[in-house]
């Protein structure tokens, strides 16, 4: 049981009120949240310093134009904000931010982390197809019942990590009937309680994990298992992999959108991976033909070996892919497998080292040892 | 045996242990298969998983990583990193259904020439059973 | 080259007619097979169907059996051909004689990249063909069958069709530059010099009712190739020329309307901002653009990284600051970097996850800016890039407007 701030307004309005309180009381110098760009449903993350601009904030909008963890990393890469910033971001975005902080690509100092129990987001196509506005009311009905909304990203449907671990505050957005009348913000940490002091609303007791969230976790787990099963049936094996990436343009949009891929010059864009004339000649001779530009599968497998261990399954990669390759499904499955090997959950603990950056002297003891007759 | 049957295996050997062990195997006139093409690195920790990936994708029938036994690395920690990198790569191959038995990691010390001989011979047999790497002919990678 | 040829804007008047009984694609791939067999080339760069999927990938092939899966004119443009070709010569000239079979805009992009020193064209023969346009990539991925059927119909009749990509619908450079209004380059390149022609060989598809193709040599290399294959260009190209001219005129009219519409659509800062409201700053457009060759884009570099204080300063100025930063700066900046070489291939719009009409906007602006320099990107290898060239007397109206004698742009005094 934790303390929670209860505001007697609808969930989004109540949260906006709380953010306004933070700005007005100067407890925060800025708010970082989704904001409307136009009347057609486009939203962008914004650093908001003025309460007037805050009126256009839609912090719980079910769309992820960029991974907020990536945005916060670019905000805190070159230093620490001198005034506190209240950031509203989804659990996977928060976990991505933590993974980036572990890699010295950002800082947690002076950031108030506000997250939510997450019902997922819609794919970006729902905005370009014009369906988003119609889907919004359906989204909140599913959220109230803690059901899986059928329109959300594939990765969201199978995400079991929808309850944030390291947030200072968590907005209860799932499994509550009266989300349009009450906004409940659980205060997870001392910092959270500090910021909520004197805020409009009353302090109540609230449980972050409820019977509804447990049920949702089960449902999402089922979806996850089905996703892995389907992959093993249709997507596994060399030929299937080649077909999955048949349409790949090599645009590397997936890597640009990925929060974990922070390298300013990706190895696969650099000179080291470019083919020299002799490589073209030898492959032509060897195979009779080669795909150009070369290295399509190499890029994806290489990227996997670099970042899949920290993949938070946010789904940005699939969303920006111009040819609808299910990148996030593939990377999530490989990521989960790698993470399982080390009992690692990306973003659960900022002190926990990334598995690829460390080792234990006693581990995998059978690996490498010749086991045949001596 | 016909040279066409002999698989092409790339072996990344660390200078201080496994390369020296391989050298000893040679001077001791132990039988080493001609499938192994050795690339020498200073330490097994230098082996970038991308090297293994690149060799595999280019059509190598097998790729071997070799280094000093854990605790004996000339640079103290290199082989611990190599072990993790191999384990992760192996996991990626397994999860994606790629032929994980085409890659392997072995600890071979400078004096373990017979182990080098056994490991290379057995791995060559293992890779032969898998047949030539289909990626040799694959245009669309 | 005889004098009539020079007057005609470097369009050859004779070609070689080949029958296309089993379709135009087969006729082209048969021709390519022949050229491989007769050792005119060691390798061919052409789009090939990937196994049994509906996708196409550029393949550099030596083995002629691969040509059975090739489609020189696929319904979509996947990787821009100029970009694919440039990957071959990043570290030096390709060591084999290669024929690159690409759409005209891809050839033009390759020529621009050549001028930017990003492609080495030694050993490369550029083969273009009449292009009806390409279908939008997202529609194709959603329903490949339907898209293919529409495209086949368009190829048969070569009619106007709203299903084609918007920039393809207004493209008047879909063939060799026959009967395009003359616009002599400011730089002294002789645009009629066949050796600096963009294509070496052009495959005419129009004017033969899709039952014939016309092999048209556009440079000495092209003529040599045909002679080597015993396909001496002796046949009349009158049918082809008249059909091409007819379609060019229609397209030019459409382009004028298009430009008027788009220039109004983005006129002024607030309208321009609105056009990019949904932009995620994913930079896909830049990444697929053939002209954007920089290994690390300026807009991804350290120069544009800010400290939190700088973020705050910018946010406090207007009360809010959009993330990721500098969306407009990216687009306007990219425009200022590459729009003079924009070949309107449309790859950018195909790659945009938010369906922003990037190609249409850049085409409209590109046309206006290229016009000022009498520049047409990629039409000629010798024609200097506008920013790599100047005349001592030009654009005086931007220097001292009130004192300047009115001269037509480009006319040297």
Task: Please describe what this structure looks like.
- The complex is a heterotrimer of chains A (374), B (141) and C (413).
- Helices cover 39% and strands 12% of the residues of chain A.
- Chain A has helices at residues 11-24, 51-54, 68-76, 91-102, 125-128, 132-144, 154-157, 190-196, 211-235, 238-244, 253-257, 277-287, 296-307, 316-320, 327-341; strands at residues 2-7, 30-36, 43-48, 85-88, 111-116, 169-171, 183-187, 202-206, 289-292.
- In chain A, a hairpin with a 6-residue loop joins strand 2 and strand 3.
- Helix content of chain B is 43%, strand content 16%.
- Chain B starts with 8 loop residues before the first strand and ends in an 11-residue tail after the last helix.
- Chain C has helices at 3-7, 24-37, 81-88, 104-115, 137-142, 144-157, 166-169, 220-228, 238-265, 269-275, 284-288, 308-318, 327-338, 347-351, 358-372, 396-399, and strands spanning 14-19, 43-49, 56-61, 98-101, 124-129, 201-204, 212-217, 235-236, 320-323.
- The chains are: A alpha/beta (374), B alpha/beta (141), C alpha/beta (413).
- At the A-C interface, strand 2, strand 3, helix 3, helix 5 and helix 10 of A face strand 2, strand 3, helix 3, helix 5 and helix 11 of C.
- Strand 3 (43-48) of chain A pairs antiparallel with strand 9 (320-323) of chain C.
Condensed summary:
Chain B is α/β, with parallel strands linked by helices and 141 residues long. Chain B is built from four helices and four strands. In chain C, helix 9 packs across helix 15.
> Helices and strands of chain C: which structural class?
alpha/beta
- The H/E string of chain C reads HEHEEHEHEHHHEEHEHHHHEHHHH
Mean pLDDT of chain C, as a whole number? Answer: 90
Order of H and E elements of chain B = EHEHEHEH
The averaged pLDDT of chain B comes out at 95
Largest sheet of chain B: 4 strands, parallel
Percent range for β-strand residues of chain C: 5-15%
Number of strands of chain B: 4
Radius of gyration of chain C: 22 Å
Task: Name the poorly predicted regions of chain B.
Answer: none
Largest interface: A-C, 75 and 76 residues
Counted beta strands of chain C: 9
Distance N terminus to C terminus of chain B? Answer: 31 Å
Estimated helix fraction of chain C: 25-40%
Q: How many strands, what sense, and barrel or not for the largest sheet of chain C?
A: 8 strands, mixed
SS class of chain B: alpha/beta
The helicity of chain B comes to 40-55%
Q: Which geometry of chain C do the CA atoms define?
A: globular
Distance between the termini of chain C: 31 Å
């Amino acid at each position: 049981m934790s303390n929670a701030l209860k505001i007697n307004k609808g969930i989004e309005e109540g949260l906006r009120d709380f953010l306004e309180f933070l700005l007005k009381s100067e407890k925060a110098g800025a708010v970082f949240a989704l904001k409307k760009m136009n009347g057609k449903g486009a939203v962008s993350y914004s650093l908001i310093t003025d309460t007037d601009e805050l009126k256009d904030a839609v912090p719980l909008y079910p769309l992820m134009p960029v991974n907020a963890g990536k945005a916060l990393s670019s905000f805190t890469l070159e230093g620490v904000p001198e005034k506190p910033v209240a950031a509203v971001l989804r659990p996977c975005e928060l976990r991505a931010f933590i993974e980036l902080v572990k890699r010295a690509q950002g800082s947690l100092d002076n950031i108030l982390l506000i997250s939510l129990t997450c019902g997922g987001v819609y794919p970006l196509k729902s905005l370009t197809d014009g369906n988003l506005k119609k889907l919004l009311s359906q989204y909140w009905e599913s959220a109230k019942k803690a059901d899986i909304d059928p329109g959300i990203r594939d990765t969201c449907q199978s995400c079991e990590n929808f309850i944030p671990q390291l947030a200072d505050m968590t907005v209860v957005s799932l499994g509550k009937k009266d989300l349009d009348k009450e906004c409940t913000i659980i205060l997870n940490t001392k910092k959270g309680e500090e910021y909520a002091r004197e805020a409009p609303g009353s302090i109540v007791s609230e449980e972050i994990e409820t019977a509804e969230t447990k049920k949702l976790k089960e449902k999402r787990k089922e979806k996850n298992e089905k996703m892995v099963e389907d992959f093993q049936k249709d997507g596994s094996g060399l030929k299937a992999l080649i077909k999955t990436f048949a349409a790949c343009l090599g645009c590397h949009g997936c890597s640009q959108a990925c929060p974990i891929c922070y390298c300013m010059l990706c190895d696969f864009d650099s000179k080291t991976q470019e083919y020299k004339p002799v490589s073209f000649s030898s492959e032509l001779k060897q195979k009779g033909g080669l795909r150009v530009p070369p290295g399509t599968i190499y890029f994806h497998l290489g990227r996997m070996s670099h970042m899949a261990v920290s993949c938070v399954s946010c789904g940005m990669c699939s969303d920006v892919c111009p040819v609808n390759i299910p990148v996030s499904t593939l990377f999530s499955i490989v990521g989960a497998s790698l993470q399982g090997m080390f009992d690692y959950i990306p973003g659960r603990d900022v002190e926990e080292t990334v598995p690829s950056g460390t080792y234990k002297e006693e581990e995998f003891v059978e690996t490498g040892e010749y086991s045949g007759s001596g | 045996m016909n040279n066409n049957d002999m698989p092409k295996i790339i072996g990344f050997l660390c200078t201080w242990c496994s390369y020296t062990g391989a050298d000893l195997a040679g001077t001791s006139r132990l039988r080493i298969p001609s499938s192994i093409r050795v690339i020498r690195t200073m330490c097994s920790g230098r082996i970038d998983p991308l090297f293994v990936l690149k060799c595999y994708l280019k059509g190598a029938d097998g790729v071997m990583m070799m280094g000093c036994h854990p605790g004996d690395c000339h640079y103290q920690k290199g082989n611990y990193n190599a072990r993790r990198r191999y384990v992760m790569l192996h996991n990626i191959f397994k999860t994606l259904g790629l032929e994980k038995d085409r890659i392997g990691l072995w600890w071979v010390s400078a004096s373990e020439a017979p182990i080098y001989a056994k490991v290379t011979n057995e791995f060559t047999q293992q890779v032969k059973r898998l047949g030539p790497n289909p990626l040799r002919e694959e245009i669309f990678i | 080259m005889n004098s009539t040829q020079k007057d005609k804007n470097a369009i050859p008047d004779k070609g070689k007619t080949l029958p296309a009984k089993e379709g135009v694609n087969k006729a082209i791939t048969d021709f390519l097979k022949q050229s491989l067999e007769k050792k005119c080339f060691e390798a061919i760069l052409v789009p090939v169907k990937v196994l049994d999927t509906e996708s196409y990938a550029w393949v550099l092939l030596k083995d002629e059996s691969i040509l059975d899966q090739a489609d020189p004119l696929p319904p979509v443009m996947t990787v821009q051909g100029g970009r694919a070709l440039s990957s071959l010569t990043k570290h030096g000239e390709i060591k084999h004689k290669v024929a690159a079979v690409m759409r005209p805009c891809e050839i033009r992009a390759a020529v621009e990249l050549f001028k930017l020193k990003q492609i080495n064209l030694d050993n490369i023969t550029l083969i273009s063909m009449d292009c009806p346009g390409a279908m939008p990539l997202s529609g194709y991925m959603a329903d490949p069958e339907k898209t293919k059927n529409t495209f086949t119909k368009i190829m048969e009749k070569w009619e106007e069709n709203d299903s084609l990509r918007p920039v393809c619908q207004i493209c008047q450079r879909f063939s060799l530059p026959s009967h395009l209004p003359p616009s002599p380059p400011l730089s002294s390149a002789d645009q009629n010099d066949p050796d600096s022609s963009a294509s070496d060989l052009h495959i005419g598809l129009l004017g033969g009712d899709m039952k014939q193709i016309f092999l048209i040599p556009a440079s000495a290399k092209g003529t040599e190739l045909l002679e080597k294959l015993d396909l001496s260009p002796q046949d009349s190209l009158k049918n082809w020329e008249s059909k091409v001219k007819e379609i060019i005129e229609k397209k030019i009219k459409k382009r004028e309307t298009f430009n008027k519409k788009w220039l109004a659509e983005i006129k002024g800062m607030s309208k321009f901002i609105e056009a990019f409201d949904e932009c995620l700053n994913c930079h896909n457009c830049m990444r697929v653009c053939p002209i954007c060759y920089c290994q690390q884009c300026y807009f991804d570099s350290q120069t544009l990284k800010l400290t939190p204080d700088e973020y705050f300063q910018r946010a406090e100025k207007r009360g809010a600051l959009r993330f990721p930063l500098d969306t407009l700066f990216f687009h306007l900046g990219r425009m200022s970097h590459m729009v003079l070489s924009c070949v309107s291939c449309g790859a950018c719009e195909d790659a945009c996850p938010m369906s922003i009409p990037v190609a249409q906007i850049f085409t409209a602006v590109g046309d206006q800016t290229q016009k000022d320099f009498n520049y047409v990107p990629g039409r000629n290898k010798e024609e200097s890039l506008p920013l790599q060239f100047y005349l001592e007397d030009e654009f005086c109206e931007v220097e001292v407007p009130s004192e300047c004698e009115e001269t037509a742009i480009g006319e040297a005094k």
